[in-house]
Design a protein that fits this description.
Structural class of chain A: mainly alpha
Shape of chain B: elongated
CATH architecture of chain A: Up-down Bundle
Radius of gyration of chain B: 25 Å
Number of helices of chain A: 4
Structural class of chain B: mainly alpha
Distance between the termini of chain A: 63 Å
Strand content of chain A: under 5%
CATH topology of chain A: 3 helical TM bundles of succinate and fumarate reductases
Oligomer: heterodimer
Number of helices of chain B: 5
Distance between the termini of chain B: 67 Å
Largest sheet of chain A: none
CATH class of chain A: Mainly Alpha
Largest sheet of chain B: none
Number of domains of chain A: 1
Chain lengths: 141, 141
């Protein structure tokens, strides 16, 4: 878009009014989850590296694959993977919550709070279920 | 606002009756630009990511502690290979759009374009590398 020419005599633009935000409010669950949605998005962005490394090492050959598998199976690797699982589940449920809002529903405060808590507990529950299954399968192997 | 009439020394009658809005309408990002594509694709890939997450959990639970040979066997199934490729496309596209919003909102002005470029380079590289890996595994190589 072409910029309009400054007009002689026009007043210089006043600085945009800023208000203190975030820091002065008691955290509400839906506010915390809004931030969490973005944070888990970034975590998923970088957490996918682990998946990428696993897939590419499998394509490369026995040696790289065993190295990556050993890292994933190590205590640090497992902690990262559990965290990644929770982050993905949380972002997914948060996304579904946003889809409900996209339809124009669920904006009453009690519903907003309820959806937030469902997202939080749901993500922990799903992560627990996935890892309970994974570890029992691993133990039987 | 018709800015012709605001300043001292201007004729009282505005030189044109066209409002600023009328002049710029249709010249924004909707005009040949991305328009609402980013918003739309973010939601489209969010939905496909739910299916991708389902496949990811299934693959993860199937391949817990698996050898490289079992990973090759898993992806030699064309259904698994196709779902894996779809996962890569859906997830990397969603990653790209999500990080783009973060760069647009938080990156300082001089870093904005480099961040946007790097984000695109990175997510497309991940997509291509993972795609090649899945094809290689599918072919049993």
């Amino acid at each position: 878009m072409a910029e309009t020419k400054p007009i002689a005599g026009a007043r210089p633009m006043a600085p945009k009014p800023m208000s203190p935000h975030l820091s002065i409010f008691r955290p509400y669950v839906n506010m915390v989850l809004s931030i969490m949605h973005r944070v888990t998005g970034v975590v998923n962005y970088w957490g996918s590296l682990l998946l990428t490394a696993w897939l590419i090492s499998a394509a490369m050959g026995e040696k790289p694959f065993n190295a990556v598998s050993a890292f994933i199976g190590s205590p640090i690797g497992l902690i990262i993977l559990v965290g990644f699982t929770w982050s993905v589940m949380h972002h997914m449920l948060g996304g579904i919550r946003h889809f409900i809002w996209d339809t124009g529903h669920g904006f009453s405060l009690p519903t907003v709070r309820a959806l937030s808590w469902v997202t939080l507990f749901g993500s922990v529950t799903l992560t627990g279920l996935i890892w309970f299954t994974a570890l029992s399968l691993w133990g039987n192997r | 606002m018709v800015h012709g009439a605001v300043f001292v020394g201007e004729p009282l009658m505005p030189t044109t009756y066209r409002t600023d809005l009328k002049k710029v309408r249709g010249l924004g990002s909707a005009m040949g630009g991305p328009g609402t594509d980013n918003f739309w694709m973010q939601r489209l890939t969010a939905v496909s990511n739910i299916f991708a997450a389902g496949f990811l959990v299934y693959a993860g639970l199937t391949l817990v502690g698996a050898s490289r040979a079992s990973v090759q066997l898993f992806f030699s199934n064309p259904l698994h290979a196709v779902l894996g490729l779809l996962l890569i496309i859906s997830v990397t596209f969603h990653m790209k759009l999500g990080m783009q919003v973060i760069a647009e909102e938080y990156a300082p002005h001089w870093l904005k374009v480099p961040c946007l470029f790097l984000n695109t380079f990175w997510t497309f590289s991940v997509a291509v590398a993972c795609t090649l890996a899945i094809i290689k595994l599918y072919l049993g190589m």
